[in-house]
Amino acid sequence: MRLFISYLRDPGTSDGPSWQTLEPQRRMVADYLKGGRSEILGEYVEIESGKGDDRPELRRAIDHARRTGAVLLIAKLDTLFRESRFITDLDQAGVEFVAVDMPEVNRLTVHIMSVLRGIQHKLDRAFDDLSEIKVRVSAIDEFILDVNEANSQEGTR
Fold first, then answer.
1. What's 46's domain CATH number?
2. pLDDT digit string (tens) for 28-55?
3. Between the CA of residue 108 and those of 4, 91, 101, 115, 156, what are the distances in Å?
4. How many structural domains comprise the chain?
């Protein structure tokens, strides 16, 4: 019998969890396990917006999977992609995992995604830096044009 730990994530609202988000994930997990000899040892549900930078339920699910030798069953892997740290945590956790929405993903794929996410972050920062430099250069150009215009007007007097 194969043992699983289920991890679901819901962005939540001011009114609490959205069961419209969680129930489809539960169905995905049930469909994935259908017909096999398997047992879900625990379900961990994260109620957290995408802007939050903490995933305590993910850490608990990983710890539970590590302690029991169970497979971490992630309903939707894209819920972890917003923050490269979570992808890295999953990569370094040392537990077997399956992403129900992307079952072809493996440890190597997640590692590559983590690296690419880090590169994307660096490129985003570089782009922001270049945008800031462009603003400064534009201000300097305006100043030089103003000085040149003032000098040319002074020369025509």
1. 3.40.50.1390
2. 999 999 877 889 999 999 887 656 667 8
3. 21, 8, 17, 11, 71
4. 1
